Amino acid sequence: MNVKVVLTLILLSITSYKVCAINVTYIADTNRYTPFWQNVHDIAHAAAQDLDINLTFIQGKGHRLLQDKIIEKIVNAENKPDLLIFMAHQRSAFKNFTLLEQAKIPFVTLSNFSYNDNSIHQEKIAYPQEEFKYWLGEHYDNHFQGAYLLMDYLISRSKQSKPKNTLIKALSINGDFASQSLEKSAGLTHKINSDEQTIIVQDIVAQWDYAKAKSHFKSLYQRHKGIDIVLAASDHMAVAAIEGAKELGLKPNKDIFIGGFDWERRAFREIKQEQLTASAGGHIFSAAWLLVKVYDHFHNKVVFHPGVQSPSTEFSLININNLNSMEEITYQNNFSHLNFYCFSRTFTQQKDYNFSINDLIVQLSKQSNHSCH
Predict the structure, then answer these.
(1) How are strands ordered across the β-sheet holding 135-138?
(2) Burial class of 34 by CB neighbour count within 10 A (0 to 12, 13 to 18, 19+)
(3) Cα 223 to Cα 179, 198, 217, 220, 330, distances in angstroms
(4) 99 near 107, Cβ under 8 Å?
(5) Which residue numbers in the chain have pLDDT < 70?
(6) Of 97, 152, 184, 246, which has the fewest CB atoms closer than 10 Å, so is most exposed?
(7) Which of 281, 208, 243, 242 is CA-nearest to residue 34?
(8) pLDDT for the residue 367
(9) What letter does residue 163 receive in the DSSP assignment?
């Protein structure tokens, strides 16, 4: 029998048509609900309601070994989920994937194992739907693109404030050494390498800590005799750099340009007050977009593909020019007025998804009474 036919039959056996609600368990890779994770949680639950999905959020405690125990408990439970979503860690991947395969629980990982992985790792688990047929796919954001986009904007703003051909010094404040952080570093470095006027003085890790980010910034500013741009991996650390800059007598958005990630509530205030230059984000909707794909998967749409994976979503920027429209769909709780079913291929009958923030804004302006029309 043709290999493709066999694979299709296996996937159909994994994906029986669901006439009742879909039970999905999502293990959040966090040890507490930060403002960012609370938004992810709220938006995902709004999407689940639209899509007739019973969504269970579990805190993974931000620790690989604790998450391993959670997965073991799920595998051994009498009532198993129709699908499991979690951040896969390389050191536990083979063990957890094997358990889930044996239990016949379909799962989607939030990891990007295609990025900087090693041959030993890849030989053990391969790619989705290869060695592990119940591993449907990877769902992850394009952190390379997000950092490139943010650095491009920060460089542009810095150049506008300086005489032509002035050297621009950039500092990167990362959160950790995880793959997403490495992707951010690669994205901003790629942009800087393409700009002869800009150099990166250092790429440091502050462990997502406000005090460390602030202290490191002040020390490095003095060591390098000035810094013109700071790209922080979170808005929390970006605000820390802003406070550090003001303590050194600098004026944000004039003497120095600082950007972050996550679209935190405070970031909106700092942008409005013209302290923070920009924030890259949109990934607060990422879990909701994945649920749209899960819904289509259980309604016989081929949305998860075997082999090497691609980013599922890209980042957008919030700055002083688009602040009002962006704020409307994030912190005014207007996502509850969206119908996420309208983005499904079951409804649109389109070949591809449109998970852009601009389309969210358009849909929000069109919809009334929670209708897709």
Answers:
(1) 53-59, 22-28, 83-86, 107-109, 135-138
(2) middle
(3) 29, 18, 10, 5, 38
(4) no
(5) 1-19, 31-33, 114-123, 331-336, 366-371, 373
(6) 246
(7) 208
(8) 59
(9) -
CA dihedral 339, 341, 344, 346 (to 10 degrees): -150
Q: Is 369 left (phi over 0), alpha (psi -120 to 50) or beta?
A: left
Structural contact between residues 41 and 59, judged by C-beta atoms closer than 8 angstroms: no
Cβ neighbours, 10 Å, residue 114: 16
> Interior CA angle at 315 toward 90 and 62, to 5°?
35
Q: Each residue of 294-314: pLDDT tens digit?
A: 999 999 999 999 998 999 889
Q: How many CB atoms lie within 10 A of CB 5?
A: 9
Q: Is residue 204 within 8 Å of residue 172, measured between CB atoms? A: yes
β-strand partners of 137: 108
Alpha-carbon gap, residue 69 to 71, rounded angstroms: 5
3-state secondary structure (DSSP) of residue 28: strand
What is the number of other CB atoms lying within 10 angstroms of the CB of residue 368?
8
* pLDDT of amino acid 16: 44
pLDDT of residue 368: 54
CA dihedral over 203, 144, 186, 188, signed as positive or negative:
negative
Helix (H) or strand (E) holding 199: strand 198-205
Average pLDDT score over the chain: 88
Buried b (16+ CB within 10 A) or exposed e, 142-151: bbbbbbbbbb
| Per-residue model confidence (pLDDT) at position 334 | 57
Residue 124: both structure tokens together: 């053990």
Helix (H, G, I), strand (E, B) or coil at 66: helix
Query: Which pLDDT score is estimated for 3?
Result: 47
Which amino acid, residue 295? Y
CA proximity to 262, closest of 110, 141, 179, 86 = 141
End-to-end CA distance of the chain: 45
What are the structural domains of the chain? Answer: 3-138+284-366 (3.40.50.2300), 143-281 (3.40.50.2300)
Amino acid at 15: T
CA distance 108 to 94: 14
Asked whether the CA dihedral 157, 162, 168, 171 is positive or negative, the reply is negative
